[in-house]
Amino acid sequence: MAKTIVKKTAKDAKTSANKLSKRKMAYAILNIQSTYNNTKVVLTDEKGNPVASSSSGSLGFNGAKKGTPFAAAKIGEVLADKAIMMGVKEVGVVIKGTGSGRESVVRSFISKGISIDTIKDRTPVPHNGPKPKKPRRI
């Protein structure tokens, strides 16, 4: 028997994105990690298993532009489109970090027609931590 080899084209890459829509769910959790230099967003199911993710670096932003609210809004639009393909109607939002792209992701999800159930801010807050070393005396 002769084996046939099939090469993947750009058209096949688009159809693989459509394979993502096979997983149907009505509710998802949106995890946003926003720092001063970057914004990362992960869409998970209710158990916490990642379904889709994106970051400003993966969309082609580089340098100081990765931490901007504009880049965060673009991340939100891309993930909202993926979520709509999966049938997500409502999301719960968990935000970590103090970057400028915190609200832009949430606003872009709202503009795409996905309702927000809850917003939780889980930014880690230091409680002074360990005592610093004594200054050196010479």
pLDDT < 50 stretches: none
Spatial arrangement of strands, main beta sheet: 3-2-1-4-5
What portion of residues is helical? 25-40%
Rounded Rg: 20 Å
Q: Averaging pLDDT over every residue, what do you get?
A: 86
Task: Please tally the helical runs, counting DSSP H or I stretches of 4 or more residues.
Answer: 3
CATH architecture assignment name: 2-Layer Sandwich
- Secondary-structure element order, N to C: HEEEHEHE
CATH superfamily: Ribosomal protein S11/S14
The CATH class: Alpha Beta
Quick tags:
3 helices, alpha/beta, single chain, Nucleotidyltransferase, domain 5, 138 residues, five-stranded mixed β-sheet
